[in-house]
Design a protein that fits this description.
The chain has a 16-stranded mixed beta sheet that branches. Helix 13 runs antiparallel to helix 14 (462-474). It is an alpha+beta fold and 827 residues long. Helix 8 (329-335) links the parallel strand 10 and strand 11 (339-344). It has a domain at 173-401: Rossmann fold, CATH 3.40.50. The protein is 26% helix and 23% strand.
Length: 827
């Protein structure tokens, strides 16, 4: 058993830390422990950003189940469903739902002296270990990797390419670059950098590179307007303005894109048209773009892109996205009506983005260059350019044959969806949930985008295997950095964290003409996930655990009781528990649960009655000379995530120090209940930290900060030995600004000396913490510890907390439905 237990992150303790206090007035940002905010923008440099648990954000997005997100007045009003549970509590007799278990610092339910060995078998099943090890992690390629191999074959049944290459250098090429500069340009000059790369290319009279600029309040390139859109022509060594005023409209507006495309084909007709989107990207749900000048305009959804391209009436040889997260199956299927090839990234992009000089020079030298070879050049240049600039960079970029995909993917995806729906409706929901949880996920912001091949391989049905084969065939070239295993070239939306987005996804699918089969699949999965949370008592809070109340599932409740809960939820009923507290599901109300309309309440209730985690068992029992926590084999199988959650009692309330994957199991499979009084620090200053993901033993997490007064986060990376470093910086955006993601979330890479490019000597850095009152309500977020004036040094270590610090340490469990639970505090 010991060799199979998850080891967690190793500590590297350097000494005693400092600065364990909140300061100043509340910031009014909303909980920084919530994983929302930016949904994935382009990075301002390198970094290790990925999907997974506990992502970044400040605005307390309704779709997230962040730490303490269900508490207090912050959750009043819209975004909450109140569930009628009073009669259920009475029927249950109080056992399991709101039962007292201990006082704040000692004792266990049933007596603190109970031996754990007398309550549980001595040899726990190892299946829970596999669940904990696999969920939100990647341990290598599940199937043979498809990287670095150009496939020029085409599956039978694929349509002819709409763009016919003449050959012998006789082709005329127009490359249209939709360059929405946004804050990527105003803060870091990224758009100007890429313009300079274009200008360095050696062009010819057979190629035109036409650029639309806009969407930015502070261009770094001289003469580019900050107040209007403009059209530029790339010339040898520079750019020439062709339209000084091309309108004052958001570049995320479909009509703006249509207008630009029509202008280009009218002025520069060619037999090979290519379109490159440059900006933030948000994947299948949020789509493309963030216009800094029109922040309320939002992004251009897939439906919006579809409208723009349809109205333009142009077919493209290739469409590329120099953005984050746009290599999605949904995007590819939509684009197959307008283009022959797609080049895009599954993951967020480093700030350097594509390298334009080389591929434009090669294309200009041979305008008859096959598109597959052009795509390979773009991908190779991008991968190698990023690797040369940044350490541990996470990159993906793929070339998809849309003509083939259009013919092969719909039927395979529908068959996969139908078989998976059947699994969910039967007793195999747990298998689907565990498969989904162990699938490669993209973006640290929990946008629920996963690799389609990896998902299919994990589910493993015949239909899933057929789908995997189809996708790998349509992806003609794919490259990833070494840490981005299980990235086969196309992702897909599959709900897991933000169930409030499901209705939006279904609406998008309908708008772009996708089949209903996949919509039914994700609706069924999300319905069971939501039902599991409802049956488990709704959104949970660690504060109840800290105060001696374990709020959790109804344990052994009957299917009739669960059916009553679900009926109240679906009816939008409002009621309170006998002690005046509401049961809530964060982010959901009657306006965004249409996806549950087809749920078979009776069947779901029967399944859930047998498959709920009993939170009253999350207590510490005596084990030899210490304490440990043990669950039955069947209960462990319901656990998908485990993290240490530490709080500081400062005499007025609780400071949340965050989440870290530090834990240890005994040889018998019991979770040890010993806290070593350590936490993470930067330059000796204790910092709030939230783990995001673990890949191949590499852990990434985030530290909320204010960078010169602006909301941001440090991205931390820990190697297999537990040694950490600050790997980048990202700015934080609220959903009211954009649902897309900055090139990979405004990351900063390192220079040759290892310094962060986005940081300058003298920059002011304030760490930020969440603060909770003793009455269980979220108070506000505050500056934490001493302000740091950046001098080029950022050293990440573990430290012991200062002597006299009153610490409460608990473990957060997440079950297969996404429901969160907390153990009682450790002794």
């Amino acid at each position: 058993m010991a060799e199979n237990t998850p080891s967690g992150r190793k500590r590297n303790v350097s000494g005693e830390g400092s600065g364990v206090y909140k300061r100043g007035s509340g910031l009014g940002t909303g909980p920084v422990g919530n994983s929302s905010g930016d949904n994935g923008r382009r990075r301002s440099g390198s970094g290790s950003s990925s999907g997974g648990s506990s992502g970044g954000g400040y605005n307390g997005d309704d779709g997230e189940r962040g730490i303490l997100s269900s508490l207090g007045s912050k959750l009043g009003g819209k975004g909450i469903i109140l569930i009628i549970i009073a009669v259920v509590v009475l029927l249950i007799g109080g056992g399991g739902l709101l039962g007292k278990v201990s006082n704040l610092f000692g004792g266990c339910s049933g007596g603190g002296s109970s031996l754990i060995s007398s309550l549980l078998p001595s040899n726990s099943d190892t299946s829970f270990v596999q669940t904990l090890t696999n969920t939100n992690t990647s341990t290598g390629w599940k199937a043979d990797e498809n990287t670095g191999k150009l496939d020029q074959t085409v599956a039978s049944g694929a349509r002819e390419k709409r763009t016919q290459i003449l050959g012998n250098g006789q082709d005329k090429v127009t490359v249209m670059v939709y360059l929405c500069g946004t804050d990527l340009e105003s803060k870091n000059g990224m758009a100007s950098s890429d313009l300079a790369e274009m200008a360095k290319a050696t062009l010819s009279d057979k190629i035109e590179v036409i650029v639309l600029t806009g969407g930015c309040t502070g261009w770094k390139t001289k003469n580019i307007s900050n107040s209007t859109n403009q059209i530029w022509r790339v010339t040898g060594g520079g750019i020439q303005c062709l339209e000084s005023n091309f309108g004052n409209e958001a570049m995320t507006k479909p009509a703006t894109l249509t207008k630009f495309i029509k202008w280009c084909v009218g002025k520069y007709p060619a037999n090979r048209n290519m379109l490159i989107f440059w900006d933030h990207g948000g994947g299948s749900i949020s789509g493309y773009g963030y216009d800094q000048r029109f922040t309320s305009a939002g992004g251009m959804t897939l439906a919006g892109i579809n409208t723009a391209l349809k109205d333009a009436g142009v077919t493209f040889d290739m469409i590329g996205f120099d953005t984050c997260l746009m290599a999605t199956a949904e995007n590819a299927l939509m684009l197959s009506k307008y283009a022959d090839y797609l080049v895009a990234s599954e993951e967020t992009e480093p700030g350097c983005g594509w390298y334009y000089t080389n591929f434009l020079t090669k294309l200009a030298a041979n305008t008859s260059m096959p598109t597959a070879e052009l795509g390979k050049t773009i991908i190779d240049d991008y991968t190698e350019f990023c690797a040369s600039r940044y350490q541990n960079v996470k990159t993906t970029l793929s070339l998809v044959d849309l003509a083939e995909l259009e013919a092969t993917l719909p039927a395979a995806l529908n068959a996969f969806a139908n078989s998976t729906t059947a699994m969910i409706k039967s007793d195999d929901f747990s298998e689907v949930s565990q498969a989904r949880g162990s699938t490669r996920e993209y973006s640290s912001s929990k946008i629920d985008q996963v690799d389609l091949v990896n998902l299919a391989d994990n589910i493993g049905t015949d239909e899933a295997k057929a789908l995997s084969k189809v996708v790998k065939s349509a992806v003609k070239y794919n490259r990833t950095s070494s840490v981005m295993t299980n990235s086969y070239g196309l992702s897909i939306y599959f709900p897991y964290s933000k169930l409030s987005y499901v209705d939006s996804a279904v609406s998008t699918y309908k708008s772009i003409g996708m089949s209903d089969d996949y919509s039914r699949c994700i609706k069924q999965y999300a319905s069971m996930g939501t039902a599991g949370q409802v049956a488990s008592g709704g959104s949970s809070s660690p504060v109840s655990s800290l105060l001696g109340n374990l709020t959790g599932s109804i344990g052994g409740g009957s299917s009739d009781m669960i059916s009553s809960l679900l009926g109240s939820f679906l009816g939008g009923g409002k009621s309170m528990t006998p002690d005046g507290k509401a049961i809530t599901i964060d982010g959901l109300d009657s306006s965004n649960i249409d996806y549950m309309s087809d749920l078979d309440v009776n069947a779901a209730s029967v399944f859930l009655a047998k498959n709920l985690l009993d939170a009253t068992k999350l207590v510490w029992l005596q084990y030899k000379d210490t304490y440990a926590l043990g669950l039955t084999d069947d209960q462990w199988k319901l656990v998908s995530e485990l993290d240490l959650n530490v709080f500081i009692d400062d005499g007025e309330g609780y400071i949340d120090l965050g989440l870290d994957n530090v834990f240890e199991f005994t040889d018998e499979g019991y979770l040890r209940g010993e806290y070593d009084n350590c936490w993470l620090a930067i330059n000796g200053q204790v910092v709030p930290y939230y783990r995001m993901r673990t890949d191949n033993g590499i852990t990434t997490g985030r530290v909320p900060i204010l960078l010169n007064g602006e909301r941001a986060e440090f991205l931390l990376v820990f190697d297999k030995d537990g040694k950490g470093k600050v790997d980048g910086v990202r700015y934080i955006y609220t959903d009211s600004e954009t649902g897309t993601v900055a090139k990979d979330v405004d990351m900063a890479g390192g220079d040759e000396d290892g310094n962060l490019i986005a940081l300058k000597t003298g920059d002011r850095i304030d760490y930020v913490c969440d603060y909770y009152n003793y009455d269980l309500t979220y108070s506000d977020s505050y500056k934490f510890g001493d302000q740091l004036i950046y001098d080029g040094k950022l050293e990440v270590t573990d430290v012991t907390l200062p002597k006299g610090t009153k610490v409460l340490a608990t473990y957060r469990f997440v079950d297969i439905y996404g429901q969160e639970y907390w153990s009682e505090p450790m002794k």
